[in-house]
Amino acid sequence: MMITAEKLKEMQDVYKTAVSLRLEKNDRNEQPTVFDVLICGGTGCKSSGSKEIQRQLEYELAARGMLDKVHVVQTGCHGFCENGPLMIIYPGQFFYCRVKPDDAGEIVESHLCNGRPVERLLYYDPVDGKPALTAADVSFYKKQKRIVLEHCGRIDPEKIEEYIAVGGYAALVKALTEMTQDKVIEEVIDSGLRGRGGAGFPTGKKWSFAKNAESDKKYIICNADEGDPGAFMDRSVLEGDPHRVLEGMAIAAYAIGADEGYIYVRAEYPLAVQRLKIAIQQAEERGFLGKNIFGSGKDIMLHIKEGAGAFVCGEETALIASIEGRRGMPRPRPPFPANEGLWGKPTNNNNVETYANVAQIINKGAAWYRHFGTAESPGTKVFALTGKINHTGLAEVPMGITMREIIYDIGGGILDGKKFKAVQIGGPSGACLPEELLDLPVTYDSLTEVGAMMGSGGLVVMDETTCMVDVAKFFINFTQSESCGQCTPCREGTKRMLEILTRITEGGGSESDLELLEILARNIKQASLCGLGQTAPNPVLSTIKYFRDEYEAHIKEKHCPAGACESLASYIITDACKGCGLCARNCPVHVITGKVKEKHCIDQERCIKCGTCYTNCPFDAIIKE
Amino acid sequence: MKTVSLTINGIVVKAPQGFSILEAARSAGIYIPTLCYHPDLVPEGACRMCIVEGSGAKTLVASCMYPVEEGMIVKTNTAKVREARRMVIELLLANHPKNCLTCRKNGDCELQTMAADMGVRTHRFDWGERKIHTFDASNPCLVRDQEKCILCGRCIRVCRDIQQMNVYSFANRGFNSIVSTAFEQDLSKVACTYCGQCASLCPTGAIVEKDDTERVWEAINDPGKVVVVQVAPSVRVALGEEMGMEAGSIVTGKMVAALRNLGFDKVFDTNFSADLTIMEEGYEFLDRLTKGGVLPMITSCSPGWVNMCELKYPDLLNHLSTAKSPQGMFGTVIKTYFAHQAEIDPAHIVSVSVMPCTAKKAECVRPQLRDSGYQDVDIVITTRELGRMLREAGIDFRSIRSVDFDSPLGYGTGAGAIFGSSGGVMEAALRTVADIVTGQDLWDIEYTEVRGLDRTKEAQIQMGDKEIRIAVCNSLGAAQKMMDRVRNGTASYHFIEIMACPGGCIGGGGQPVPTNMDIKKKRAEALYKIDEYSQFRKSHENPDIKTIYKEWLEQPLSKKSHQYLHTTYGRQKR
């Protein structure tokens, strides 16, 4: 059977009815008789019990004989993970958060039977205290532009019918039936799409290298080895809209002339793996993947390869080694994978988010895509907001938006009203940016200019209680333990950096340590074999650059301004002491003295800074400095 | 081949396309320092010593792997490059024991040389943690001291790519990275053949041969012992390197004189027992050929190869010639025939052999090799160990006057000499077998088709009306390919020579370091030169061989021969 755009449209029309409630604008005045209840089935919401909510809801519906009227759908991630488990009810797009299984009865009774939304489950804005009735009213979503996450949270990721209903696979059919390989590549080049995995290499250009490489066999790889601390956008896309990634891969495979591909996904993402497996099977059954796709004579076979948890396997040559069954270790480039990749054959490798952009570019054209973002960094970027921020979650924003907008408008500002100190972007390869850079527009190039990088898009927000030396130590510890161990600068150099940072945080740093750190960093960046080592010193260099005073306080004054470094903290008993003697009794080294009902005193020389007195004082009379 | 032209340090260099920057530079006489790179191995670009600045690259690049490009501008000695190289050395030294002066590799250590050459004069990181490992001295051949390992991966590559035994691999990450055997077991617990190629390529003292020189000194100094030594064919063309001479120097007479000088009571030539091996093995081959025995018959001189066969192809052990190795035969002969002739109680004999080989140390303790009633060979030392003994004894090797081996049992033919090079056993056997088959004293005795350092060689030899199909393999990688063919029946040869080490014994795991294929080639050429100038070039013409058969063994494959000169094999389970 030869598929055409018309035939796909016919399929789409058939499946559309199933999702029509979610697609159409509804009239709120009329009490609807049928509903779609969308329950978030992303990893976050699932682990806070969304499956039980679904079960309870279906029980309540069955009890009232309403199962035929209410369509309960388990979707992928909605992004607003902080407030999960999330539920959206159509028509009306009513947005419920922090739902519990026990709420099911009330939701059915009040909302579905009587048309009265359950107000206590609505989202209340922390700033003005007003409830948001629909998802569109939630401040978290207002500034977002969802292209990649378009269907995440709107469709059932385990049903290909729903993906087709919302326009899925139209781009693949268009590419295969109406476009030449070169035309597809040209479109992607014109769109300006850049690799969303970190370095931001132009995607279309990368494809053209693989296309131009002569070979009887080529491969396509999707890098889903998301490893940056705090990043989970790829997981969410795979869990929420797996077909979108498959479609992007299939288009890329067609463009470069590959007939086989691998999705390299972390084994720690079982849900993503499961949904990918289902998606591949369904796509093969429908003829979107497999042998002789729609009679075009083209084969596109996709396999899943589960990674074993090595961060370095996100580096493309290590990833390829791992697929081949070897230890995941990078090799020097050239040759680049576009010429000699998997099993020595030309291979194109992009990450999940990059592929997830492709279908829309083919469907709507490069010019449409360029409406979003900046000239050099067009489109959107999905960020994972974590750390000391009110709205933890996933946000997709147009490139060029400022960090301030992301953190304050979307992220809802800093937790507990504390003061912002820094935002870490780009994971272990990235940097910590200070407050004065909050108005920096977020693009690949602007971030590189300030010593950071886009990375996969993890944003870790830090407040005044975070010590920047400690943060640098955390990231160097991460890269040191994840270094493949092959090249000397990365293996040995990051170890020495870690040791220096450790002694600074413990009060043993000397003034020459900063210089030594910089020398090490410079050489590790220049001489390391792969991207992991070449970028590993960035968190240290950026914190020295923007927070040098904090380093100096640790070294010269043996003081941690953020009060985070335990070894440098001093515990002092204030006048609020009532002389109860609890601290003295609890002190493991017996260095607190004082008479009953009189102010006690800590012998600072002998104090081991364990903090027991501080945490147990019933009168909060002990302070940490 | 297409050539590209590039500029290195301002000099225009032409190099074939596909060359690395390093190869191009070295061909133009520009030296770039290296550590993990070895010309015999596939480069991996890991140590980062050979980094250079190359136009178009954002960071420094590993010249051992970066391909030359037309018009490329390379700088090998900029401030940036030099700082990074010193940093690499400093970082390696920070995690390395500081006992260089008492290290086995003191003077031969590539890390030491690099540190000196790069002008590293400080230890800015000597406060840092250093990795702690236990010592592996579990086997009779090799000692691993991982604290000295700099993770260059040469051992992994030679064992994986050339020997294909895959004994080593990288394990763990970051600072905890190690070169590990399976589950970090001792070498004696994994499928290691003790070929010692890892030791011969290790740039530091992390893998070395087990040192048995003290035991030799003890025996020599014991007035109650008669200390007898035999020297393998390939030692005489390599020992010179240990003593500061050119690769390929033939030092037979000096070596004998030096051994006497050390205090050995008798100095015998393993070339003699190589001839003896040819007699037994040659007749065994003819026997198998004419009586429908198991073919192809495969040589059994190389203990690394025998270990591999016992480990991985135990079902094919009946293809191995039952003839002992030359070392094994000599061991028995010394404690039986020689002891009897010289009227010495074999209990008082200490039989030492000097071998190019680490696996020989394990061979001599095989329970099968006690046909004299004692352990036939008591101590095996390698060429490197002999070099150390000579240096310690202060022997002026350059000026020492050449002398002959002790006689009898001290004469070997040219056929015995070429045992030391890949193809040599085959060629020696063919010389004897051809004479027997044709019944003539053939003049045309150089079988050049089996010479050379190719890993696998094959030929068809016409002997009278018989066509003999033969193959020669060196390296365990080539051996495994051949054995897979033997197993599946596609190796239609009559006779196969297999040597465990690349190039044969001249490339043995106990030979002088540094080594590479060019050096091995020179050693092999020297052996063929010895053969060319030999009075006798066929084993069966060796007068000492004739005597020993007349006085003792009667004839090849006789009952006595079987009792003393043949052996058995068995599956090794590890």
TrEMBL record, chain A:
Pfam families for the chain: 2Fe-2S_thioredx, Complex1_51K, Fer4_7, NADH_4Fe-4S
SUPFAM superfamilies recorded: 4Fe-4S ferredoxins, Nqo1 FMN-binding domain-like, Nqo1 middle domain-like, Nqo1C-terminal domain-like, Thioredoxin-like
InterPro entries the UniProt entry points to: 4Fe4S_Fe-S-bd, 4Fe4S_Fe_S_CS, NADH-UbQ_OxRdtase_51kDa_CS, Nuo51_FMN-bd, Nuo51_FMN-bd_sf, Nuop51_4Fe4S-bd, Nuop51_4Fe4S-bd_sf, Thioredoxin-like_sf
GO molecular function annotations of the record: 4 iron, 4 sulfur cluster binding; FMN binding; metal ion binding; NADH dehydrogenase (ubiquinone) activity
PROSITE patterns in alphabetical order: 4FE4S_FER_1, 4FE4S_FER_2, COMPLEX1_51K_2
Every 4Fe-4S ferredoxin-type domain range: 568-597, 598-625
Source organism, top-level taxon: Bacteria
UniProtKB keywords: 4Fe-4S, Iron, Iron-sulfur, Metal-binding
Cross-referenced NCBIfam families: PRK13596.1
Entry's family note: Belongs to the complex I 51 kDa subunit family.
UniProt-recorded name of the protein: NAD(P)-dependent iron-only hydrogenase diaphorase component flavoprotein
Automatic annotation (TrEMBL), chain B:
Ranges of residues in domain 2Fe-2S ferredoxin-type: 2-80
Pfam families in the record: Fe_hyd_lg_C (PF02906), Fe_hyd_SSU (PF02256), Fer2_4 (PF13510), Fer4_7 (PF12838), NADH-G_4Fe-4S_3 (PF10588)
UniProt-listed CDD domains: fer2
PROSITE patterns the record matches: 2FE2S_FER_2 (PS51085), 4FE4S_FER_1 (PS00198), 4FE4S_FER_2 (PS51379), 4FE4S_HC3 (PS51839), COMPLEX1_75K_1 (PS00641)
The entry's keywords: 2Fe-2S, 4Fe-4S, Iron, Iron-sulfur, Membrane, Metal-binding, NAD, Repeat, Translocase
Family from the record: Belongs to the complex I 75 kDa subunit family.
Entry protein name: NAD(P)-dependent iron-only hydrogenase catalytic subunit
Originating species: Megasphaera paucivorans
